[in-house]
Design brief:
This protein is mainly alpha-helical and 222 residues long. Helices cover 69% and strands 0% of the residues. Helix 3 crosses helix 4. The chain starts with a helix and ends in a 6-residue tail after the last helix. Pfam families: Mannosyl_trans.
Length: 222
């Protein structure tokens, strides 16, 4: 969104192909649209957080921000990380693994933000999609985060109906396999943790395939 607000008329940022990288970066940072956006959003962020901190003290800061950095949710979920976090939860280096799990997620969100910022709806969709897919905790309600953005990009995704149905079918079947293994674990008492994790890996692979297909078949609005 920051890059999108920094655009000039016609989607340009006021620089040419001959400009150096540092000049291009500076033109983005110093653009009036972006400065205004930074001042407004930054002020509101500080104001709201300041009020909450005044009301609840450090407990607000801990549960709002720090908890999500150090959180270790080892219960079975769709994330490919859950089994690794489960096996290492009692080790001295578990917190390192938990932090490292953020790196792929953070890198991809930043890369997609830089690459697709001119097409804001598509940028928000792919960023949200990779955030959920690569998150340390992934449950069904998280899917609504990117599904709510899907209608905004569908008109520009040129995928035939047959392939779209295959993608939807693969997405649903991979979830059904995971839910079946999780049912045996949660309700029948069978030790199917490895099977649940295998289904998580399959679901992860399906999501990566879907994301790749959407990206290569999207007509960009710049």
């Amino acid at each position: 969104m920051v890059g999108w607000f920094a655009r000039g008329k016609g989607g340009e940022c006021g620089h040419t192909k001959q400009d150096g990288m540092l000049q291009v970066i500076f033109s983005h940072i110093s653009h009036p649209h972006q400065l205004l956006y930074a001042v407004i959003s930054g002020s509101m962020f500080l104001l709201i957080n300041g009020v909450m901190y005044y009301m609840y003290g450090f407990e607000f800061f801990e549960h709002t921000y720090l908890y999500h950095v150090t959180r270790k949710d080892v219960k079975h979920n769709f994330s490919v990380y859950f089994y690794m976090l489960y096996l290492t939860m009692d080790t001295s280096f578990s917190w390192i693994i938990s932090l490292l799990a953020f790196l792929p997620q953070l890198i991809l969100v930043l890369v997609f933000g830089v690459k697709y910022y001119k097409d804001l709806p598509f940028c928000l969709f792919v960023q949200t999609f990779v955030f959920v897919t690569f998150n340390k905790v992934c449950t069904s309600q998280y899917f609504l985060w990117y599904l709510s953005l899907l209608p905004l990009i569908l008109p520009r995704v040129k995928i035939n109906m047959t392939k779209a149905l295959k993608m939807l079918l693969a997405w649903c079947i991979s979830q059904a396999l995971w839910l079946s293994a999780a049912y045996l674990l949660e309700f029948q008492g069978y030790n199917t943790l490895l099977l649940v994790w295998t289904a998580s890996v399959l679901f992860f692979a399906v999501n990566i395939w879907i994301l790749y297909t959407v990206i290569v078949n999207h007509t960009y609005s710049i």
